[in-house]
Specification:
Blueprint lengths: L28 H14 L12 H4 L2 H4 L4 H8 L2 H25 L11 E6 L2 H14 L5 H23 L7 E6 L11
Parallel strand pairs: 1-2
Helix pairs in contact: 6-7
């Protein structure tokens, strides 16, 4: 696995107000990437790095957090405070995606020999559970249930193919299937 302890850094540009506001009012992916890259370089923080909106599940914080249950629930469900920032970010999303895609041609090995692990948490597991619950309880319209059933037919393969595309970002990459609770995006 890994060491029993890991150093954890918190960098906030998501609107939680746990870091100073960005000096750049344009919350594009490119600007946020530049800020984070500069921070990592100046602070001399070396890989491996792990970051994801559901990291609390993957790294075991759900089971091993040190704050009270009430405080932890606030941390996990604190979406109202980040809504204004999320709306700003969404307004730049198309522009950011185009800029990144234009700057990084397909197959660009931007990480060089740095290690990269792509962890595949199968979202279709959650949606299959939702689908079965909807069918069993006659929820939603027949059309909506049918559309989800069609999507689920190849969802895992399509999603895995998309995630595997990230392997080309590094010459030292690996693909890992998440297991257990981490295999799913949502813990019910």
């Amino acid at each position: 696995m890994g060491p029993n302890r890991a150093r954890v850094y918190s960098y906030d540009r998501a609107g939680y107000r746990r870091s100073e506001p960005s000096p750049n009012p344009q919350y594009t992916a490119i600007n946020r990437n530049r800020e984070l890259a500069t921070l990592l370089e100046v602070a001399e923080i070396e890989p491996p790095l792990l970051g994801d909106s559901t990291y609390h599940e993957i790294v075991g914080l759900d089971q091993k957090h040190v704050v009270s249950e009430g405080e932890y629930e606030v941390i996990k469900t604190d979406e109202k405070r980040i809504l204004p920032t999320a709306q700003i970010e969404e307004s730049y999303m198309a522009e950011s995606a185009k800029g990144v895609n234009d700057a990084l041609p397909e197959g660009c090995c931007i990480l060089g020999d740095k290690r990269l692990s792509v962890i595949f948490a199968n979202e279709s597991v959650d949606l299959t559970m939702i689908y079965h619950h909807a069918v069993e309880n006659n929820l939603g319209t027949e059309e909506a249930r049918q559309q989800l059933a069609v999507r689920l037919e190849d969802m895992e393969q399509v999603d895995e193919h998309g995630q595997r595309a990230h392997l080309g970002l590094s010459r030292s990459s690996r693909f890992i299937y998440a297991e257990g609770k981490a295999r799913r995006h949502t813990i019910c």
